[in-house]
């Protein structure tokens, strides 16, 4: 794909991702997202030049992560709002005659997409056609939808049309090819909108000017992160790639522990008596899986402690998460979080319907009937606390012992239980009782 240029979008405020932090810096299978994605894009696309567009929080960190990846790579901080601002920031680095592929750092797909694109590229260049990528879905996704004509050319992009108003079954994956940077630059400069869809307006204006946009019809797996619970989709995407058991040489596993299925267990981890790790699962470095604990379908970061008789199921942890005889199900937990004994994450409604989550003041369905909690960094959960399904806890919070938490908690809060109880004199001498009858039944 000689002379193809890339813009990789990693900016934006991630406001819908709250209380979790920078989604472009998450880790999967022990590697940061920029390292995973940029290495993959360069390996398959072999670009002439790659420009990554970050935000004020992640630009320097991404630069550090990708600095050892071979290739002509620059990381720039986004100027301007939305995808249009990101695209314009990237376009400054290319000549009008260049062709260009724009990708999203947080779109995860199979290698077959690159193969399909490679088969189409020479024809696109010859005919001076551009390309958008569609993913057929029967389930509504809050993204852009493609409008197609009878010849499968894309005629418009409708951003977030709302469930029931979709113009087609094709959601747009950000895998946009342009035969001419100059052409895109011209239409971007002319596009106007009162909403955050200037980029999509520019594309639609190009199509209405008889610039042909071919659709790449992608039918493989695709996951992306817009909302916090999408982290679990991406986790599963990577867990499904584990093939066999990859266990570091210095991992210590008790003779009575069980390791089942496809797993990766990193260096320094210890797995104690009667613990079970049921794949697919990833366990990072220097973790402890305590006696009688169960880890299944989950991804744990480094320095995590799964305490005695704790169950961790279908959950994503970053680093330094500690449990002490708990149930953690279908939850996303960031760094440095500790659960007191017998605290738990509820993950299923009594009526077994889909769980809703508060996103920017709006109650949105997650589309999941099992979803636990979404917890930011530096949180402590006291003994016996119960966290209801879909509840979010922001960073630097304490949840006191015995609290039944059914509302989201903002940053830097201490939630304490208020209770009344009576203390009176005890006039019964229990020492005079005899338990021999009870004991006789213990056979």
UniProtKB/TrEMBL annotation:
It catalyses: N-acetyl-alpha-D-glucosamine 1-phosphate + UTP + H(+) = UDP-N-acetyl-alpha-D-glucosamine + diphosphate; alpha-D-glucosamine 1-phosphate + acetyl-CoA = N-acetyl-alpha-D-glucosamine 1-phosphate + CoA + H(+). It holds the Pfam family Hexapep. Pathway: Nucleotide-sugar biosynthesis; UDP-N-acetyl-alpha-D-glucosamine biosynthesis; N-acetyl-alpha-D-glucosamine 1-phosphate from alpha-D-glucosamine 6-phosphate (route II): step 2/2; Nucleotide-sugar biosynthesis; UDP-N-acetyl-alpha-D-glucosamine biosynthesis; UDP-N-acetyl-alpha-D-glucosamine from N-acetyl-alpha-D-glucosamine 1-phosphate: step 1/1. It comes from the Bacteria. InterPro entries: GlmU-like, Hexapep, NTP_transferase_dom, Nucleotide-diphossugar_trans, Trimer_LpxA-like_sf. GO terms for molecular function: glucosamine-1-phosphate N-acetyltransferase activity; UDP-N-acetylglucosamine diphosphorylase activity. Residues 7-222 form the Nucleotidyl transferase domain. Keywords: Acyltransferase, Multifunctional enzyme, Nucleotidyltransferase, Transferase. In the N-terminal section; belongs to the N-acetylglucosamine-1-phosphate uridyltransferase family. This is Nucleotidyl transferase domain-containing protein.
């Amino acid at each position: 794909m000689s002379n193809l240029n890339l813009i990789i979008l990693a900016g934006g405020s991630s406001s819908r991702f709250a209380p979790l932090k920078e989604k472009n810096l998450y880790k999967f299978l022990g590697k940061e997202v920029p390292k995973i994605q940029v290495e993959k894009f360069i390996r398959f696309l072999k670009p002439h030049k790659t420009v990554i567009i970050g935000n004020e929080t992640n630009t320097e960190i991404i630069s550090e992560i990708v600095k050892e990846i071979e290739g002509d790579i620059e990381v720039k901080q986004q100027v301007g709002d939305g995808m249009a601002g990101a695209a314009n920031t990237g376009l400054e680095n290319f000549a009008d005659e260049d062709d260009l592929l724009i990708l999203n750092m947080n779109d995860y797909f199979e290698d077959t997409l690159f193969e399909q694109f490679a088969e189409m590229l020479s024809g696109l260049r010859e005919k001076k056609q551009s390309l958008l990528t569609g993913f057929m879905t029967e389930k509504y996704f809050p993204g852009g939808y493609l409008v197609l004509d009878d010849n499968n050319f894309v005629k418009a992009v409708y951003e977030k049309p709302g469930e029931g108003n979709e113009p087609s079954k094709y959601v747009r994956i950000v895998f946009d090819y342009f035969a001419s940077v100059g052409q895109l630059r011209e239409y971007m400069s002319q596009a106007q909108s009162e909403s955050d869809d200037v980029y999509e307006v520019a594309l639609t204006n190009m199509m209405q000017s008889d610039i042909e946009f071919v659709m790449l019809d992608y039918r493989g797996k695709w996951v992306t992160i817009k909302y916090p619970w999408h982290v679990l989709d991406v986790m599963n995407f990577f867990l499904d790639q584990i093939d066999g058991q990859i266990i570091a040489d210095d991992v210590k596993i008790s003779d009575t522990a069980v390791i089942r299925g496809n797993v990766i267990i990193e260096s320094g981890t210890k797995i104690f008596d009667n613990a079970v790790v049921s794949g697919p699962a990833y366990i990072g470095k220097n973790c402890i899986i305590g006696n009688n604990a169960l880890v299944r379908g989950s991804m744990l970061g480094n320095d995590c402690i799964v305490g005695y008789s704790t169950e961790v199921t279908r959950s994503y942890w970053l680093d330094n998460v500690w449990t002490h005889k708990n149930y953690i199900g279908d939850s996303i937990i960031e760094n440095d979080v500790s659960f007191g004994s017998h605290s738990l994450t509820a993950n299923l409604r009594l009526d077994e319907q889909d769980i809703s989550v508060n996103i920017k003041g709006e109650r949105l369905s997650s589309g999941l009937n099992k979803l636990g909690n979404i917890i930011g960094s530096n949180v402590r959960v006291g003994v016996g606390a119960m966290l209801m399904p879909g509840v979010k806890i922001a960073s630097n919070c304490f949840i006191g012992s015995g609290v039944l938490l059914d509302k989201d908690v903002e940053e830097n809060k201490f939630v304490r239980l208020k209770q009344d109880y009576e203390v009176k004199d005890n006039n019964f001498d229990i020492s005079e009782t005899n338990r021999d009858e009870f004991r006789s039944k213990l056979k």
